[in-house]
Amino acid sequence: MLTVTDLSIRFERYDRGLTRTVLTPVHHLDLDIGPGEIVAVIGASGSGKSLLAHAVLGILPDNCRVDGEIRFKGDPLTPARQKALRGREMVLVPQSVGFLNPLKNVGAQVRRAAILGGAAGRDAPGITDAAFARYGLAPAVQALFPFQVSGGMARRVLTATATVGRADLIVADEPTTGLDQEAAQQSMAFLRSLADEGRSVMVISHDLSAVVPVADRVAVFLSGTTVEGAPAGSFNGQPEALRHPYSRDMWRALPGHGFDPGPDRAAGPTWSEGEADGCPYVRRCARADAACADTFPPKRHFGRDFVRCRHA
What we know:
Blueprint: E1 2-14, E2 20-33, E3 38-42, H1 49-57, E4 64-72, E5 75-76, H2 79-85, E6 90-93, H3 106-116, H4 124-134, H5 151-163, E7 169-173, H6 181-196, E8 200-205, H7 208-211, E9 217-222, E10 225-231, H8 245-252, H9 290-294, E11 300-302, E12 305-307
Parallel strand pairs: 3-8, 3-9, 6-7, 7-8
Antiparallel strand pairs: 1-2, 1-4, 4-5, 9-10, 10-12, 11-12
Helix pairs in contact: 3-4, 3-5, 4-5
């Protein structure tokens, strides 16, 4: 359904002296999602997860350059095609509640999304009622404006807005933020049901405990790239089931594993800023050597799984 190959995202900016600076927060990024799959894109804040979502939907700012290839249903996602499919065949559950229109009540926004997604106008009110009920929102909430709802309620409205249509690709950016445990589980269960209908779902999150139980696969992000792609079940066993040291350290840091920070690295190598052009985990990995610091690790495939690590 969706294939991202060697994606890089660059931003250009100029200081007061008109000196041009190029920032590359995303590089060498790979991802694929098949029909009926939930892929959990996991990683720390600032690792490039939301930039990936915006690149797929074509909503990056004008000073941005995108290299690499993004394909949807086998065909390249050109800017024109992104515009034609966005909101219809591809939808975003955004992270920020600022995506809601402050001048319209939330019910009207969900109804409009249903119509844009292919519903007939006469059916949109019933579809909207069902969506609000699904996310535990009382009918009276439909008349409220975004500033009148709580953060958790706004998150549920955003999810309802993105999922009332017939989109084949749903990109959910931190869908459990601001929700209590029960509401978060319900939200993820509904995304699971959409995937079971044959849709593709990308769930962007740093909350492994919420997303991994319902996901099929995980893509582990670090410093703007994917360092591992693996079955979600790899996070349910022992850390040795994961190939990248960063993935294993994420596993150890889960609440159920005692927030273990991983092996002691006090005696490990220390790399200067100038040497860290290679593996993004070079300063934290106990097995890092000079080659790890000098050369970006190639992607090694294990069937559909992959890892970027010289020592895996």
